Amino acid sequence: HVQLVESGGDSVQAGGSLRLSCAASGYTYSSYCMGWFRRSPGKEREWVAKIYTGAGNTDYADSVKGRFAISQDNTGNTVYLQMNSLKPEDTAVYYCATATRSLRCMMVDFNYWGQGTQVTVSS
């Protein structure tokens, strides 16, 4: 039973920084990649960043490129999202997810999800 637990959400002012963490446990199969997603009020969930746990390659949504950085610890079971230069439009619930079924790591491949952590950015 895979569990993902996010932490680090908070309220900050625009221009500030936060680091989110996601601790994963209970894997039966290896994780191909881990990702961060977010959902703002009234909007659909959107992909933010992902990291391929084997090679460490990363990819970002255009809206956060250059401001956010995803990383993992040596075990690959904890993933971080460093968020800098935060904007009010970054306000959302941030979710961590892992893909264990496919190396494609498309959004549909993420099959385990955390409960989310709230990030609020005020202007």
Written account of the structure:
The chain has 123 residues and is an all-beta fold. It contains no helices and 11 strands. It has strands spanning 3-7, 11-13, 18-25, 33-39, 46-52, 58-60, 68-72, 78-83, 92-99, 112-113, 117-122. The strands form 2 sheets. Strands 2, 4, 5, 6, 9, 10 and 11 form a 7-stranded mixed β-sheet that branches. The chain is globular. The model has no long low-confidence stretch (mean pLDDT 94).
Structural key phrases:
123 residues; mainly beta; 7-stranded mixed β-sheet; 4-stranded antiparallel β-sheet; 49% strand
Secondary structure elements and their pairing?
Layout: E1 3-7, E2 11-13, E3 18-25, E4 33-39, E5 46-52, E6 58-60, E7 68-72, E8 78-83, E9 92-99, E10 112-113, E11 117-122
Parallel strand pairs: 2-11
Antiparallel strand pairs: 1-3, 3-8, 4-5, 4-9, 5-6, 7-8, 9-10, 9-11
Computed over alpha carbons, the radius of gyration is: 13 Å
Whole-number mean pLDDT = 94
Order of helix and strand elements from N to C terminus: EEEEEEEEEEE
Would you identify the regions where 5 or more consecutive residues have pLDDT less than 50? Answer: none
> Helix tally?
0
Helix content: under 10%
Largest sheet: 7 strands, mixed
Question: How many DSSP E strands?
Answer: 11
Work out the strand percent.
over 45%
Q: From the helix content, strand content and strand pairing, which structural class follows? A: mainly beta
Shape: globular
Cα distance, first to last residue? 40 Å
